[in-house]
Every structure is written in structure tokens, then in C-alpha cells.
Amino acid sequence: MNRTEKQKMLAGELYRPDAELAAEHTAAEQWMARYNASGASSAAELHALLGERFRKVGRDAVIRPPFFCDYGSNISLGDGVFLNFNCVILDVVEVAIGDRTQIGPAVQVYTADHPRDAETRRAGLEFGRPIRIGSDVWIGGGAIILPGITIGDGALVGAGSVVTRNVAPGAIVAGNPARARPA
Question: In this protein, which residues make up the domain named Maltose/galactoside acetyltransferase (predicted)?
Fold first, then answer.
């Protein structure tokens, strides 16, 4: 069976960005221009705009503009999720954020990844690994979440941390790379 590049991308396999993905990315850029220009809109209007693009938008979920993403269509937000100004989500595969999770300003969430060998990168191939952030998580401003990471329910990620490994439920991590800290 011949699979499209989009199907490969969504499955986390090596893919090559093609015209279909470029068109979807352009549509996301147009949506971001509208969303980011709507700073004076009501919470209900911003929520409705999120619903146009995202896979799921829970009740009372809020993202303060400006906000940036690759596609938007691979992002799911639980109830009461809050993302502060200037967040970036590279969503070539699923990004799921659980209920009541709070994400500080300028946090970056990267599912996009690249092959480790130069020859494959030269061929223009890339892939993604999903990110799952549990419920009741707090991620401090400027943190970076790398591809394939799972952050368990109730965890706390310190500001400016670079999360390179999964974070257990209830854990507190901070630093570069993020390491467990006492409560």
C-alpha cells in the first residue's frame, strides 16, 4: 500500500514534506495570523478560533496570543488548559495536553525530529514523536519539551528547563537537562 507523506508523518515514520503538507502548513499560517491579530477578542471568540484548527479544545481552554504551531490539527487541549503568551508547538504528530495544565510564556513543545545520520537528513527526510502532557501539570516559562516526552499528571517543570526524558507523575524537574528536584 502506498501511503501519503502526511500518513507517514502522522504515524511517526520518516516522511518528506510535500505539496499537501506545504498547503496544510500555509493554512495553519493563515489561521495563526488571524488568531494572533485577535488580541482584543473575547475568551469565547478565541476559544472558537482554536476550535477551527485544533483536534480538540476542552471547555475553558485558553491560549494567549501570539501563539505558533506547525499545523494545529494534531493538538488536543483538555478542560481548563492555559498557555501564556508566545508559546510554540511543533505538532507534526500528536500533542495532548491534559485538564487544568498551565504552561508559562515562551514554552516550546517540539514533536518534530530529524534522523541522526547526515545522509538521511540530506535526503530531506524527517519524523516526529508524540508528546503527552498530563493533567494538573505546571510548566514554567521558557521551558523546552523535546520530541517523544511524556509528562505525568501533577508534575512541575521549572522555568527554563530542557526536558530530555519522561517526567513521572508528581515529579518536580528543573535545569538543562531537566533533573528531578526535591519537593
Answer: 6-59
